[in-house]
Specification:
By secondary structure, the chain is of the alpha/beta class. Helices cover 28% and strands 22% of the residues. The strands form 6 sheets. Strands 4-3-5-6-15-14-13-10 form an 8-stranded mixed β-sheet. An 8-stranded parallel beta barrel has the order 16-18-19-22-23-26-27-28, surrounded by 8 helices. It has a 3-stranded mixed β-sheet with strand order 7-8-12, with no helix packed on it.
Length: 603
């Protein structure tokens, strides 16, 4: 590992003392060594550190230094900004090309497609100053697409030149690998060279990925490889040379592990003599993609107008006795924070309010997202009202407009429900030809397919024979219909389960994948709130039909149900709500059971 001197372009060994390469802030030295910062690291990233109010107040009032953030206007950069602030640094936004040149430390979180990002960088005059900044070996961190843009090009946008700092191109994951694409979730790293960046990360810990394209190591770029990750073969998951580093994963969404990585870069940490920096030692068996456990918060206004977390039985969220008030299981922001501390891999907010007008004016979900993203550093999904709207004043808003506001407020993904079913119907009516007008297509094109979740709400319909339905039918092994029927199909519903449609879950799932959805949240009205387990027949039907990740939902009542759905189906994640809200089952107990059953999980 080498580091480039600030005053020259001569590479010197990492950790070697060089007065010219010491970067200073008015309140904090960029070149703090590992041992000097160990007490701080142990404090801020321990589970109990959040309770140390005195220390939090100190860092809230004293900046540890200034960091320049390159936000080119696409995607959820709020989470990166919040992570930087959470660690005690102030953020300076790039507003013109000269801000890049003057930066002492630059963070570049890339979101969206390769070609669109390069177009924006060039149109704003950022591309050349950014490339020059990196070539001068100034402290730089690229995230996700911010790493891919360092390469010469990408299969995602043929003919579009990248920054060309790193030799080689970015290629797509092939469906022939037999794995869901995008690569979405928590995977491990295999460290390939010493680096303070990974020094605090322990063996067997995972970080969060979400991407459909990856860079492969070659003889020409091997000296850049900081770590690799296995997903149908090894790819470059982080790179570093001198003061320039970038990662395919999202540190701002990787929990305390990600915060430690961020802090190492932001504080300019270097290795001391004798420290090898192998936070992730080379492993004989690479850490595989973990199955995700997701906490879901159904959010709606109660009869008093307060936004609360609720949960129903088969979609009925009102109490069964008394005045039939909306069940109140807690406040969204507080519950979200609790689930992050308990180890949830993701948190989903589903706004189940019946909107009277434009959703961004009707409910304070934007504030919920903004406040949650300040202290929760795992992916956040929001659903409800992601569709075209014309408000009472006649103002038109596209689904893309609505989604953009949610992304800017802290959401990483948006979930589309009823409109996805209508889009699937339109696709099939149009002989399978996309129009480009659906919410799925608009959002996927702008933000990438990984940002679009489709929520499907089906119920089981029994038939005597497959010929009795035009939809895909299955023959459950252990259940029969009320009149002895042996076959069934899963009817999709809209409007919160109140209206059945002609298409089945299988048909809708295949259609929305073609439209550009990156993930499917698969509910089941029959199992909702029952606690008897996920509908394994439904989950396997859909997860085996598509190449995008599928989240199993509805019916979980015990840790065993999570292990069961992961063993018996091809789903990538499983979600629960009420059992977590009421503390009937803890996230920790679910993961302990999965670990005992040798199911890959993030502990």
């Amino acid at each position: 590992m080498t580091i480039l001197s600030k005053s020259t372009n001569i590479f010197t060994p990492l950790g070697q003392k060089n007065a010219d390469s010491t970067w200073m802030s008015s309140s904090w030295s960029w070149s703090k060594t590992v041992s000097q910062r160990q007490p701080f690291m142990k404090s801020i990233f321990s589970r109990s550190s959040c309770r140390n109010k005195k220390k939090c107040q100190i860092f809230a009032g004293q900046s540890r230094g200034e960091v320049t953030l390159l936000d080119y206007g696409v995607g959820n950069v709020r989470s990166v900004r919040n992570a930087i602030k959470h660690l005690g640094f102030t953020v300076r936004e790039v507003e013109n090309p000269s801000d890049i040149t003057r930066a002492d430390r630059l963070v570049f979180p890339g979101v969206g497609s390769f070609g669109a990002a390069m177009d924006i960088l060039k149109s704003k005059g950022y591309a050349e100053p950014l490339k020059e900044y990196i070539l001068e070996d100034k402290p730089f961190m690229g995230i996700c697409l911010g790493m891919q843009l360092l390469f010469e090009g990408s299969e995602e946008s043929e003919g579009v030149e990248g920054l060309g700092v790193i030799p080689g191109g970015v290629t797509a994951f092939s469906p022939s690998l037999g794995l869901p694409v995008p690569h979405m979730g928590w995977s491990g790293l295999r460290q390939c060279q010493p680096s303070a960046l990974l020094n605090h990360v322990q063996d067997s810990q995972r970080v969060y990925f979400v991407h459909s394209y990856r860079a492969l190591e070659t003889a020409a770029n091997k000296d850049w490889t900081l770590s690799t990750t296995d997903y149908g073969g090894e790819f470059m998951s982080s790179v570093q040379k001198g003061n320039v580093t970038a990662m395919q994963f999202h540190p701002e969404k990787s929990g305390n592990v990600g915060l430690a990585l961020f802090d190492s870069f932001l504080s300019g940490e270097t290795l001391e003599t004798g420290q090898d920096g192998t936070g992730f030692p080379k492993q004989t068996v690479p850490l595989t993609l973990a199955k995700r456990v997701i906490a879901c918060l159904d959010v709606r206004a109660n009869d008093q107008g307060d936004l609360v977390v609720t949960k129903g039985d088969q979609y009925d969220v009102r109490e069964t006795e008394g005045e039939r008030d909306v069940r109140n299981l807690g406040l969204p922001v507080e519950l979200c924070k609790r689930y992050f501390s308990e180890g949830a891999d993701e948190v989903a907010f589903l706004n189940i309010t019946g909107f009277r007008d434009f959703p961004l004016q009707d409910m304070p979900m934007l504030e919920v997202l903004q406040r949650s993203s300040e202290t929760v550093f795992v992916p956040l999904t929001v659903g409800g009202g992601i569709r075209d709207f014309t408000d009472s004043n006649g103002q038109y808003y596209s689904a893309l407009n609505v989604a953009s506001e949610y992304f800017r407020s802290g959401a990483d993904k948006v979930s589309i429900g009823s409109d996805a079913v209508f889009a699937a119907e339109e696709l099939l009516t149009n002989e399978g030809k996309p129009t480009g007008k659906s919410a799925i297509e608009q959002i996927s094109y702008t933000y990438g397919k990984q940002a679009v979740v489709v929520s499907i709400d089906p119920r089981r319909v029994w038939v005597n024979a497959p010929e009795d339905s035009s939809n895909k039918c299955i023959r459950p092994a252990s259940e029969r219909g009320p009149n002895g029927e042996e076959w069934c199909w899963y009817q999709c519903t809209v409007s919160g389960g109140r209206e059945g449609r002609s298409l089945g879950a299988y048909e809708v799932a295949c259609a929305v994948e073609k439209l550009g959805a990156g993930e499917i949240l698969l509910n089941c009205i029959d199992r909702d709130g029952t606690g008897v387990g996920f509908d394994l027949d439904l989950v396997e039907l859909v997860s085996s039909a598509v190449t995008i990740p599928v989240i199993a939902s509805s019916g979980a009542g015990s840790p065993e149900h999570f292990s069961e759905v992961f063993k018996e189906t091809q789903c990538a994640a499983a979600l629960a709500a009420g059992i977590f809200h009421r503390s009937e089952v803890t996230i920790e107990s679910v993961k302990q059971k999965m670990d005992a059953d040798t199911i890959a999980t993030r502990l």
